[in-house]
């Protein structure tokens, strides 16, 4: 996210650097990754779930943390001194300065606010949804450096940020279109809001996406200009939602073209590589492994099996990402007893929360695993079965050594139930990891790879929003 676009900008201005930093497989640890794999992976078949005492302790902490996250998130909306609808990425104004409204962060955060509204409606929460619309419509009319709707972030007075930055970031307009459509669905009785404000805004964002989707742009981490899996996934969702909302099939046909491109990201490495067609920004993300792939499945898949959390290629990618972090951080040496590896953005990452040195695990990335697995469970239950494929066989073998391509688990069979229990236990280990590092419930952006202490922007709004959606999936009713 918010990096250091200075570094990205510098790299852009350098003549195509050719050096590349190899993925470091843990210099400091000699332990074999497979021996440190969290509990659910090796012993699930015999003991699929943690003891019920641990279970209920974790359950009550998740409830407590969800309530805290709602407060922490709402506290960063309409902060003092900002115009209506400004959502600070974090209250931190220095080291790092995150006191801006990123279109991405705001649009993902407001979906967690909407989830609060849908589960417990109130006028105050409805007001926050309307405020978001007000701020974003104003932002869409601002002069911007990119002279486009993909301008990444806006100031507290509603004007656009004009310093050097990685731009454009074209996932923002797509995430905004989806958020606005969801708000229209929730507040549909206010027809002036929907007809006069939201519909024209959604059309403007979608028309922009139709023009730019195949062109490289900066990714969600603001570091590399490329065509990325994450950005295409949110664009496909925005266009698909928009085709229905506006009654215009042409958006659906662009979404189909995007699907064809998305199908080229799963490579013979056996996982989805995050980006293609790089034309600027950082050049050392060589593995292509990136937690944004799971975040994309959580936020942007459409319940149709196309890169949904329970689909084979997403599951295969989750295993590859997990393994890439196993030995990367010193704190991961305690993984295994009901606690997962701590997960960062991608293994080659260097952003430490303020500048570039050694990167750390992130709360929202660790939570993405919990959310993916609970969404997957929900999906398998609705589908009535789990089908193992070549791509997903290694994933399922973590829990059932007899799983193989072609194996089917039928809902309600003992095999299905014990597999689902094992995957749920695995998902819980990611919550347990977050619990360990979210001291007094607060969540910053990152936690230190060596000490486990919170680092980076304090009270990161997206960390709280991510907890709310992970918790909804845990509760069996994933956020829309
Ligand atoms: C309907 O939306 C408009 C435009 O955002 C807003 O000014 C008005 O207060 C809303 N009305 C209600 C009843 O929420
Ligand atoms: C983070 O949020 C908590 C809870 O709202 C608050 O008590 C604390 O002061 C905040 N910390 C910072 C640095 O903003």
Characterization of this structure:
It is a single chain. The chain has 480 residues and is mainly alpha-helical. 48% of the residues lie in helices and 6% in strands. It has a three-stranded antiparallel β-sheet with strand order 3-4-5. A two-stranded antiparallel sheet has the order 1-2. Strands 6-7 form a two-stranded antiparallel ribbon. β3 and β4 form a beta hairpin. The structure holds 2-acetamido-2-deoxy-beta-D-glucopyranose (2 copies). One 2-acetamido-2-deoxy-beta-D-glucopyranose is lined by residues 130, 190, 192-193, 197. Its EC number is 3.2.1.3. This is glucan 1,4-alpha-glucosidase.
Features:
disordered N terminus, 48% helix, globular, binds 2-acetamido-2-deoxy-beta-D-glucopyranose, 15 helices, two-stranded antiparallel sheet, carbohydrate metabolism, three-stranded antiparallel beta sheet, mainly alpha, 480 residues, glucan 1,4-alpha-glucosidase activity
Task: Give a brief outline of the structure.
The protein has 480 residues and is mostly helical.
**Largest pleated sheet:** 3 strands, antiparallel
The outline comes out as: globular
SSE order in H/E notation?
A: HHHEHHEHHEEHHEHHHEHEHEEH
The proportion of residues forming helix, as a percent range, comes to 40-55%
Mean pLDDT: 91
Gyration radius over CA: 21 Å
N-to-C CA distance: 23 Å
Task: Detail the poorly predicted runs.
Answer: 1-51
